[in-house]
Write a structure and sequence with these properties.
six-stranded parallel beta sheet; single chain; alpha/beta; seven-stranded mixed beta sheet; 31% helix; 18 strands; 17 helices
Length: 446
């Protein structure tokens, strides 16, 4: 691996130099083990510790197939799907790998007794498989996490609708929390060159997800002047949603849980902020069995106080069970609730009278298609949208990084150095970086 790292750090290495590098027979990667899926049986979700289930193993390099690429991973990042994988909730991801393994001989490569996790990366292409013409060894790239086959017709209008749609590193093997990753070549996008390796790796999953959920016609189809309620506005998803709302001429109403997080939202340019810790909303009783519509009304009154009497056009929903009833209630007549994930629980409950009689819409949103991913990455590369990286760990510390995300001890995104020996490397456009330095570092040190 040292030869590969030396070539990446050399400014004069050519595509031919990278193409001639010997590929390693094995590499270090963060894994979960199939024989440990029951290790947390009887333990509550919050008490499940990713440090116990995430391992850094030496794993063999897989066979490279047509349309695929090996990438030397300089940095990756933690997403909630890695947390879910590490605590084996809501299901073990080995079921995904087994089903993928039954699809074809190439799919069989993914069905292993270990799962290499991670759905973000920045790095350098090492080798491409047959049929790849857009990318070559030495290209500096990031990867989005949409893996599709596109053999059937369903995905050709929106690749997210492909019957064989999977999230790389979660529903496939050979993910990005490793020294080498295997991706489909059409997952690759140009690395934003004003960013470091760890900064460039961090937006991927959440930035593309936020773009589709809020901006795209497949999601909220946000327009100028919309009032957008953003839960967790300083978090991994919410931090990007807040930026998209402000960039698109909408008005974000940012819900946060502390004054520190409120300060981050203000630094992005948001003015209308609700601090849940100060307001102490109790949407559910102490047993978590019954919601209190009076608290929905109190929440709605606070929103109208901030907006000058206006209701919410689009709700950017991702907490799920804890907040969904309130989200449906506060949305204006004819408005939209866009939902992805469910970090507080998947079984949503709401009063359907407020949805049905007021012609509101619930739109499900899951990651992003190829076009949406490229658009989101293009905005990062132009300096119009910025990373939300707050802290970076080493590969050996991935378990601790996942634990921090699991317990919501982080702001924005948490990065992981893979091959990169230190933070701060990989910048090639210092001029553009200087223009946006404060915004790039907004989430650091909080």
């Amino acid at each position: 691996m040292q030869q590969i790292l030396d070539a990446i750090q050399a400014d004069d290495a050519t595509p031919q130099d990278f193409a001639s590098l010997p590929l390693p027979e094995s590499y270090r990667a963060v894994t979960v083990h199939k024989d440990e899926v029951d290790m947390f049986e009887g333990v509550s979700s919050k008490e499940k510790d990713p440090r116990k289930s995430l391992h850094v193993d030496e794993v063999p390099l897989p066979e490279l197939g047509p349309g695929e690429a090996f990438v030397a991973v300089m940095a990756s990042a933690i997403n909630y799907n890695t947390v879910w994988t590490s605590i084996f909730e809501p299901v073990s991801t080995f079921g995904f790998l087994e089903r993928y393994g039954r699809t074809s001989p190439l799919g069989k490569r993914h069905d292993l007794p270990y799962h290499i996790v991670g759905s973000d990366l920045s790095g350098v292409v090492l080798k491409t498989g047959p049929g790849v013409t857009k990318w070559k060894p030495g290209d500096r790239v990031v990867a989005h996490c949409l893996s599709v086959e596109l053999e059937g017709p369903d995905g050709h209008n929106d690749t997210m609708l492909d019957p064989e749609q999977r999230i790389w590193g979660f529903e496939t093997n050979f993910g990005g929390l490793a020294e080498v990753a295997m991706v489909k070549a059409n997952q690759l996008m140009p690395k934003p060159e004003h960013l470091t390796w760890e900064e460039a790796a961090s937006p991927g999953l959440v930035n593309c997800t936020a773009y589709r959920q809020l901006v795209s016609k497949n999601g909220g189809d946000m327009k100028q002047g919309d009032n957008v309620l953003i839960w967790g506005a300083s978090g991994g998803l919410g931090g990007f949603a807040t930026q998209y709302a402000l960039n698109g001429g909408a008005t974000p109403i940012c819900v946060v849980s502390s004054e520190e997080k409120a300060a981050i939202a203000r630094s992005m340019g948001a003015e209308l902020i609700i601090n849940r810790a100060e307001e102490d909303y109790r949407f559910w009783n102490d047993e978590g069995t019954q919601q209190d519509p009076r608290e929905w009304k109190r929440f709605g009154a606070k929103i109208r106080e901030l907006t000058g009497g206006e209701d919410i056009d689009i709700v950017f929903e991702h907490p799920g069970r804890e907040t969904f009833g309130a989200s449906v209630f506060v949305t204006r007549k004819g408005g939209t609730i866009t939902t992805c994930a469910s970090t507080s629980g998947y079984m949503h409950e709401y009063d359907n009278r407020y949805l049905w009689m007021n012609l509101k819409k619930i739109i499900s949103s899951h990651f992003a298609n190829y076009r949406e991913s490229w658009e989101a990455n293009r905005l990062i590369a132009k300096g119009a949208i910025h990373p939300t990286l707050s802290r970076t760990y080493k590969l050996d510390e991935t378990g601790q990084a996942a634990l921090d995300v699991h317990h919501n001890l982080h702001q924005g995104k948490v990065g992981v150095l893979c091959l990169s020996p230190q933070e701060g490397l990989g910048v090639r456009n210092a001029e553009l970086r200087a223009q946006h330095e404060a915004a790039i570092n907004r989430f650091r040190g909080v």
